[in-house]
Amino acid sequence: MKLNIAVLAGDGIGPEIVAQAQKVINAVATKFNHEISYTPALVGATAIDQVGDPYPEATHQICMDSDAVLFGAIGDPKFDNDPKAKVRPEQGLLAMRKKLGLYANIRPVATFPSLLDKSPLRKDIVEGADLLVVRELTGGIYFGEKGRSEDLKKAFDTCTYTTDEIERILKLAFAYAAKRNKRLTIVDKANVLATSRLWRETAQAMEPDYKDIEVDYMFVDNAAMQLIQWPKKFDVMVTENMFGDILSDEASVITGSLGLLPSASVGVHTSVFEPIHGSYPQAAGKNIANPVATVLSAAMLLESFDLLEEAELIRQAVNKSLEQGIVTEDISKEKPYKTSQVGDWLASYI
Amino acid sequence: MKLNIAVLAGDGIGPEIVAQAQKVINAVATKFNHEISYTPALVGATAIDQVGDPYPEATHQICMDSDAVLFGAIGDPKFDNDPKAKVRPEQGLLAMRKKLGLYANIRPVATFPSLLDKSPLRKDIVEGADLLVVRELTGGIYFGEKGRSEDLKKAFDTCTYTTDEIERILKLAFAYAAKRNKRLTIVDKANVLATSRLWRETAQAMEPDYKDIEVDYMFVDNAAMQLIQWPKKFDVMVTENMFGDILSDEASVITGSLGLLPSASVGVHTSVFEPIHGSYPQAAGKNIANPVATVLSAAMLLESFDLLEEAELIRQAVNKSLEQGIVTEDISKEKPYKTSQVGDWLASYI
Ligand SMILES: CC(C)[C@H](C(=O)O)[C@@H](O)C(=O)O
Ligand SMILES: CC(C)[C@H](C(=O)O)[C@@H](O)C(=O)O
């Protein structure tokens, strides 16, 4: 197979971790005889510094022309404590989501047997947890009309959803549930919000088409509780943009392996694969960041082209590296490996 | 002191648990020579059944005339799976909040040493956690304009906030922080929402008036993570209505003692004191529900009138009951006490 991958390494540790994922993809390509080409492009604070735009048009074109996007991380502390800064790295992220039509963010969260003691939860609560959070990513209060009154004393944000948007994401969520354990939890706040009531009605209308999926509706406050109390009871969870932002981050810490979690953002034009962790500026350039989340994002990338064996081999390599302690300092302080050493080990295992 | 308490027992286990709190208040009143009168009133599903309104005008008048409201719980499963039901118990709750001007919901969350093993979190993570969540309760997306397009294919909700609303709740949060460990975490999504940016600007403008309070701004997704990863790092957390709904429920499960947590909703006209748990319909009438959260809510009620010694005595009684195993079946399955027995024990201890 021929794949043309746009590489948006971004800020902080982005370049280092993306480089390891590329090593791993290359190893897989050699072994399975695929032809991979990479086109790098600017994004985030780096792009603001160089061309004044966190998601430049040139980058957008490269993404549009790609089969998939491998993304590192964005964010720089110099923008953090200034909510009024005119241009911010996050705007690039939101622009990318909108322009590429990245309507679904997919986050698998599963415990790694060798890392159970990293979880803040009790072992018996978290052991064996394996869930997938599907977050709507281009609608809701993120993209609705917002602003300030003339006297600046009043602000507003609008959350909107259409049945088309809701159906599109629910279809995807049902499909994931069908491939997994056939349980789908739809999270909303239908006792308060009009948009949530539209979500619930739309879902209820779709249910008959998915008779083999067990559907469950849950209010967002309840979901925030149950994720911690009984993480094992969830299979696929789907929800709107803002609730998904909160719940997917909450879900990501229950296994204690934040530095290992990948994600995919499924798009209309192309899809983006990235670690869920941030740009970790304190570690930038030190060759100490954990590349595994990005490597596993690369596995999701290959999987999206039905390269299942390839993806599985990457996951196997990662599991072996964890078992054998070929890990960065966030996982083991005793004899930590460097970022590049972990990448080399994974590539040579493959 | 003379106190006139409106008693809104509500649905499910509401009447049973409120009765125990009244026993405890009466014991305190006798000991400290206070004169307490109670005026019962209808609310919730019970009120819908009897007069067709979950927060009838007569109830509202009783609340308006009261010094404080002791509230049980509302909610009935017969309304649960019908998001289109015309009248729902929750509407009564929202109407009550709005009409009584209950602008702040206060939830203290602290570990009970004797119940550490109930927490879903690891003991070392949760031991000693002691935080207070302040949730704005009469603004935001709960009360903004909402609706559906004519063809029913589009829905919207509006989140609005004014500087006055924000200042009022932040003042209260700063005051709580001043009485506690002098740390205030202000949670928002200022990188995305216009209302959050107004919250942050308003807070930043207030900071100089509270020089002894250490203020910290946190995005809501990050707060959802840190609550689980490092619950001990929080002292007072304040946030807007929807985020507060999610985060206060999330916070309530980290200590594992959901059935023990009280709350206060501070109002313009009167204040409401209630357990944070629900109406638990499966247990209704069985005399097995845990009355402690309601009893501790009564302690918050007394405290709000500066009856500090009285409140402290109630807390002491509760701690003793937990240590001595005078607890309902949710806490100990071995030799559980009945709801009324726990109430009697607490009253006679006092
Ligand atoms: C940076 C921010 C705008 C973004 C979001 O809220 O979507 C981030 O939190 C995420 O989840 O990817
Ligand atoms: C019942 C519901 C409307 C309510 C809310 O969301 O405020 C409840 O979840 C709560 O937190 O008191």
Automatic annotation (TrEMBL), chains A, B:
<dbReference type="GO" id="GO:0009098">
    <property type="term" value="P:L-leucine biosynthetic process"/>
</dbReference>
<feature type="binding site">
    <location>
        <position position="249"/>
    </location>
    <ligand>
        <name>Mg(2+)</name>
    </ligand>
</feature>
<keyword id="KW-0560">Oxidoreductase</keyword>
<keyword id="KW-0100">Branched-chain amino acid biosynthesis</keyword>
<dbReference type="GO" id="GO:0005829">
    <property type="term" value="C:cytosol"/>
</dbReference>
<keyword id="KW-0963">Cytoplasm</keyword>
<comment type="pathway">
    <text>Amino-acid biosynthesis; L-leucine biosynthesis; L-leucine from 3-methyl-2-oxobutanoate: step 3/4.</text>
</comment>
<dbReference type="InterPro" id="IPR019818">
    <property type="entry name" value="IsoCit/isopropylmalate_DH_CS"/>
</dbReference>
<feature type="site" description="Important for catalysis">
    <location>
        <position position="142"/>
    </location>
</feature>
<comment type="similarity">
    <text>Belongs to the isocitrate and isopropylmalate dehydrogenases family. LeuB type 1 subfamily.</text>
</comment>
<dbReference type="InterPro" id="IPR004429">
    <property type="entry name" value="Isopropylmalate_DH"/>
</dbReference>
<dbReference type="GO" id="GO:0000287">
    <property type="term" value="F:magnesium ion binding"/>
</dbReference>
<keyword id="KW-0479">Metal-binding</keyword>
<keyword id="KW-0432">Leucine biosynthesis</keyword>
<keyword id="KW-0460">Magnesium</keyword>
<feature type="site" description="Important for catalysis">
    <location>
        <position position="189"/>
    </location>
</feature>
<feature type="binding site">
    <location>
        <position position="221"/>
    </location>
    <ligand>
        <name>substrate</name>
    </ligand>
</feature>
<protein>
    <recommendedName>
        <fullName>3-isopropylmalate dehydrogenase</fullName>
        <ecNumber>1.1.1.85</ecNumber>
    </recommendedName>
</protein>
<keyword id="KW-0464">Manganese</keyword>
<feature type="binding site">
    <location>
        <position position="245"/>
    </location>
    <ligand>
        <name>Mg(2+)</name>
    </ligand>
</feature>
<feature type="domain" description="Isopropylmalate dehydrogenase-like">
    <location>
        <begin position="4"/>
        <end position="346"/>
    </location>
</feature>
<keyword id="KW-0520">NAD</keyword>
<dbReference type="InterPro" id="IPR024084">
    <property type="entry name" value="IsoPropMal-DH-like_dom"/>
</dbReference>
<feature type="binding site">
    <location>
        <position position="97"/>
    </location>
    <ligand>
        <name>substrate</name>
    </ligand>
</feature>
<dbReference type="GO" id="GO:0003862">
    <property type="term" value="F:3-isopropylmalate dehydrogenase activity"/>
</dbReference>
<comment type="subunit">
    <text>Homodimer.</text>
</comment>
<dbReference type="GO" id="GO:0051287">
    <property type="term" value="F:NAD binding"/>
</dbReference>
<feature type="binding site">
    <location>
        <position position="221"/>
    </location>
    <ligand>
        <name>Mg(2+)</name>
    </ligand>
</feature>
<dbReference type="Pfam" id="PF00180">
    <property type="entry name" value="Iso_dh"/>
</dbReference>
<feature type="binding site">
    <location>
        <position position="107"/>
    </location>
    <ligand>
        <name>substrate</name>
    </ligand>
</feature>
<keyword id="KW-0028">Amino-acid biosynthesis</keyword>
<feature type="binding site">
    <location>
        <position position="135"/>
    </location>
    <ligand>
        <name>substrate</name>
    </ligand>
</feature>
<comment type="function">
    <text>Catalyzes the oxidation of 3-carboxy-2-hydroxy-4-methylpentanoate (3-isopropylmalate) to 3-carboxy-4-methyl-2-oxopentanoate. The product decarboxylates to 4-methyl-2 oxopentanoate.</text>
</comment>
